[in-house]
Amino acid sequence: MNKQSFERSHVRQIRIHVMPTDRFKTFSISLFAGTPLREQTVTPTALLPFVLRRGTKRYPLTKQFRERLDDLYGAGFGFDIYKRGDYQMVQFKMDTIHQDYVHAEKDDLLRASLTFLGEVLCSPVIENDILKTQYVQSEKNTLTKRIESIINDKIRYAAERCVEEMCKDEPYRLHPLGQIERIPEIDAESLTSHYHSWLNEAVMDLYVVGNTTMEEVTKIVEEAFPLSRSSSPGYESHSHNVQAKDVQTVVERLDVTQGKLNLGLRSKIRYADQDYPAALMYNGVLGAYPHSKLFINVREKESLAYYAASRYDGHKGIITIQSGIEIENYEKALRIIQKQLDSMKNGEITDLELAQTKAMIRNQLLELNDSAFEMIGYDFNGVLSGVHRDTDAFIEMIEQIDRGKVQQAAEQVELDTVYFLRNEKEVLADADKNV
User: What is the Cα 29 distance to its own chain's centre?
Assistant: First the structure.
């Protein structure tokens, strides 16, 4: 079977990526709009998609907006807001069935869907030359509640606070949903001004996977996205490179019954680097999977943690460790976690750990081909980093990783921050530092 890949073009500073395929019964559409993380813009940028999804010039009422999706045979529409490296990403997604499967030969559902997305982006509801005040005020409340939900979820809260402390002098400290204290100062007029700036400056990548052609998609985009944009330079291939210094320990006290012990580590290896497969293996052996060292040694053998895992942001070069522990077990849990980090640097990695980690990563890469949106996400990582890796070639790279290469990756990792969220009562001698 011929392997399918993305074809590339551009229209009005929008980069177009199309995978023509008849494997799926739907058209999967993603529009990525990326801007640098900045304190003055992160909150209004996060608010924009909430407002834009309320209505368009043609469908100004939210009810009409949703009815139009129903007219498109129940097309799915949504958005995500997240960060990749030092960039804030807004991703709009649509999933529309191909007209051949709904006996709608006269309806061009790809054209209708891209036109709808173009209206969401370029033709929002405007009243008195500004975004509709009612929608702005309503969605400010929605965004506030979304951020509050993170604060109320102490696992997510501890993860964000660890990163915030670790990267206090870097854009990466900012949460992609913005700062809750900055929401009240936004009004319809200021958000409208920001909308026009964002529309002009954001790096935009439009993906379409389905039974179509680059020629067809390009022609539709030219009509459906009436943008006049200045030159978009694309993404820098590297994030700010900050070296770990003396380990800082931060303790925060809240009304909690379970402690959250999080560690932030810096890796010199990024997504675009040749050693990235080894760094991915390092994270897999350390804490990404149920067979990993953190899960087995901290949670299973010692029964010290309710959960223990690690995550690796290859675009930033940061690894974070999350664990939930009894507060009195802080010192012991920290000691055992650090022991796992030391064992990785010493090359104490079993053949079974290597084999299981390779199998997990291989399965994840193979499963990408089962989902159009997963393929889009994987390809976009290549766009962000400037390095595209064919999945088959990447699997082969993973298979070639041995213990020595994982150990070398471990030597590129340094502990930066220890963050502990605990209750407000008893005092822990070794934990009460740098509060």
Answer: 17
Report CA torsion sign: 389, 395, 400, 402: positive
Which range has the worst mean pLDDT, 106-115, 134-143, 165-174?
106-115
* Distance of alpha carbon 216 from the chain centroid: 30
Among candidates 335, 312, 310, 307, which has minimal Cα distance to 323?
A: 307
**Which pTM does this prediction carry?**
0.93
Would you place residue 237 in the very low, low, confident or very high pLDDT band (cuts 50, 70, 90)? low
Per DSSP, what are the bridge partners of residue 253?
Answer: 422
Per residue in 144-196, pLDDT (tens digit) is: 999 999 999 999 999 999 999 999 999 999 999 999 999 999 999 999 999 99
pLDDT band at 435 (very low <50, low <70, confident <90, very high): very low
Q: By 3-state DSSP, what share of the chain in percent is helix, strand and coil, each rounded to 5?
A: 45, 25, 35
What percent of the chain is modeled with pLDDT above 90?
A: 85
Q: Rounded distance, CA 305 to CA 18, Å?
A: 45
The DSSP bridge pattern shows strands 87-97 and 413-422 to be: unpaired
Partners of 28 in beta bridges? 95, 209
Q: How far apart are CA 205 and CA 14, in angstroms?
A: 6
**Dihedral sign from CA coordinates of 372, 374, 377, 380:** negative
By CB neighbour count within 10 A (0-12 exposed, 13-18 middle, 19+ buried), where does 203 fall? buried
Which position has the token pair 């796992």? 340
253-38-224 Cα angle (round to 5): 125
Under DSSP, is residue 207 helix (H, G, I), strand (E, B) or coil?
strand
| Of 396, 359, 360, 365, nearest in space to 379 by CA | 365
Give me the chain's average pLDDT, please: 92
| CA-closest candidate to residue 73, choices 37, 125, 109 | 109
- Domains of the chain, start order: 7-224 (3.30.830.10), 248-422 (3.30.830.10)
Q: Which residues pair with 35 in a beta bridge?
A: 88
Give the number of other CB atoms < 10 A from CB of residue 179: 13
Environment class of 88 (CB within 10 Å of its CB; exposed 0-12, middle 13-18, buried 19+): buried
Question: What pLDDT digit, counting tens, does each position of 17-68 carry?
Answer: 999 999 999 999 999 999 999 999 999 999 999 999 999 999 999 999 999 9
Contact 150, 156 (CB under 8 A): yes
